[in-house]
Amino acid sequence: MKVGFCTVANEEEGEKIAVHLVKSRLVACVNMLEVKKSFYMWKGKLESHSEVLLIIKTSDEMAKKAEEEIKALHSYSVPEILWIDVVGGNEDYLKWVLESVKGSANS
């Protein structure tokens, strides 16, 4: 199982991506959190903006497809998409995630 992190420009964009991923059964769940400020260098200039952070739960098998869909829907030319392997957790929750995602070995 994987947990993904993806920042988006605003709540509207985040909701569009989250709903698409869940309805497509590429992911089991997406949480949206407001980020007060993000600071980063872009094209040699310091940038600072408020953003929304998506926390995405999916299977190992569906992470790449979910990433492709995020890139297709995302407004940034280089979106932050990070995947972290889950090494443990509530077994009932982990099972639910895998059962909720199409193409998973357990669905």
Folded structure, characterized:
This protein is of the alpha+beta class and 107 residues long. The protein has one domain (2-100): Alpha-Beta Plaits (2-Layer Sandwich). Helices cover 32% and strands 36% of the residues. It has three helices and four strands; from the N terminus they run βαββαβα. It has helices spanning 11-23, 63-73, 91-100, and strands spanning 2-8, 29-42, 45-58, 82-85. A four-stranded antiparallel beta sheet has the order 2-3-1-4, covered by helices on one side. A hairpin with a 2-residue loop joins strand 2 and strand 3. Helix 1 (11-23) runs antiparallel to helix 2. The protein is elongated, with a radius of gyration of 14 Å. The relative contact order is 0.29. The model has no long low-confidence stretch (mean pLDDT 95).
| Rg | 14 Å
Strand content: 35-45%
**CATH-derived topology:** Alpha-Beta Plaits
Topology as a string of helices (H) and strands (E):
EHEEHEH
CATH architecture: 2-Layer Sandwich
Largest sheet entry: 4 strands, antiparallel
Average predicted local confidence, pLDDT: 95
Helix content: 25-40%
Give me the side-by-side strand order of the main sheet. Answer: 2-3-1-4
Q: Any idea how many domains?
A: 1
Structural class: alpha+beta
Total E-strand runs: 4
* Shape type: elongated
Spans of at least 5 consecutive residues whose pLDDT stays below 50 are: none
Distance between the termini: 13 Å
Number of contiguous helices: 3
Q: Which CATH top level class fits?
A: Alpha Beta
